[in-house]
From TrEMBL:
It comes from the Bacteria. It comes from Gellertiella hungarica. It is found in: Cell membrane. It is a multi-pass membrane protein. This is Spermidine/putrescine transport system permease protein.
Length: 288
């Protein structure tokens, strides 16, 4: 049997993507199929799953409307807040910072990831609690300030926790920027502001959309930050899933919410890709 060059390429491709594809199928596709089956079932009398085929669980999604509203409001708000802070930082690192110091500054952005998000969130619990910033405000005469267990505390925790994930894609996009375009714009008489909004921002949009999609998708399933900084008063979809699966043991309803969350993530990703391709034209745009 003669093995052709094309057949060898297919074998190499299969060898390269086969293990990863098998891993994703076993640990991603199969669990999602199980969740999808649960979503059309009923809650067993003792809790868990009872085989059935009904859309009753999807019809009851309105009972968890608060979790959906909080998630769909605070997740995009957190992503936008991260963007507003991350873009100037990424711009400075990629364009303004001295090359000798750039690696050190980028490392400082990544350093927070070396510490567990749980530990960092607990630190914010102390800072926003009665013995933290409110106590300092009382010393200067500002009393009855409540920071913990509020949407503002959750938003602050979101920005702090996810800011590096927004900075890095924008930094990579800006770092690849052809400096000759900026010089040509200046030589043609364009003001720095016009150059920034006419050249820098459009060319960095792939990085912006990547960061926005990445942060927003992760925030849609966030559990830890709302639980600790929201004190159970600011519920996300992730908190509702934990309650339904582990406490109420209503697996079908939790599965219906999980399937709905996946659908929302897919829509967000598709919209982000469409926007990125529209503004980036024929340039390569990678969101995942």
């Amino acid at each position: 049997m003669v093995i052709t060059q094309e057949f060898r390429k297919k074998l190499v491709t299969l060898a390269l993507i086969g293990p990863a594809g098998l891993w994703l199928f076993v640990f991603l596709v199969l669990p999602f199929i199980a969740i999808l089956v649960f979503a059309f079932g009923k809650r067993a009398p003792e809790g868990g799953y009872q085989a059935a085929f009904t859309i009753e669980q999807f019809a009851n999604l309105g009972s968890r409307a608060a979790a959906f509203v909080n998630t769909l409001m605070l997740a995009p708000a957190g992503a936008i807040a991260c963007l507003l802070i991350a873009y100037p930082v990424a711009y400075y690192l990629a364009v303004k910072a001295h090359p000798r110091h750039r690696l050190l500054l980028v490392s400082l952005v990544v350093v927070p990831f070396w510490t567990s998000l749980l530990v960092r969130t607990y630190a914010w619990m102390y800072l926003l609690g009665a013995r933290g910033i409110p106590h300092l405000l009382e010393l200067i005469g500002i009393e009855n300030v409540r920071l913990i267990n509020t949407p503002g505390a959750v938003l602050l925790g979101i920005v702090y926790g996810y800011l590096p994930l927004m900075i890095m894609p924008i930094y990579v996009s800006l770092e690849k920027l052809d400096r000759r375009l900026l010089e040509a714009s200046a030589d043609l008489g364009a003001r720095p502001v016009s150059t920034f909004f006419g050249i820098t921002v459009p060319l960095s949009l792939p990085g912006v959309m990547t960061g926005m999609a990445l942060v927003t998708i992760l925030l849609l399933g966030e559990y830890l930050i709302p639980q600790l900084l929201g004190g159970g008063k600011v519920f996300f979809i992730g908190n509702a899933l934990v309650d339904l699966f582990l406490q109420s043991r209503n697996w079908p309803f939790g599965s219906a919410i999980a399937v709905t969350l996946v659908a929302v993530v897919v829509v967000v990703l598709m919209v982000a890709m469409r926007i990125a391709w529209r503004f980036a034209g024929t340039r390569q745009v990678d969101l995942v």
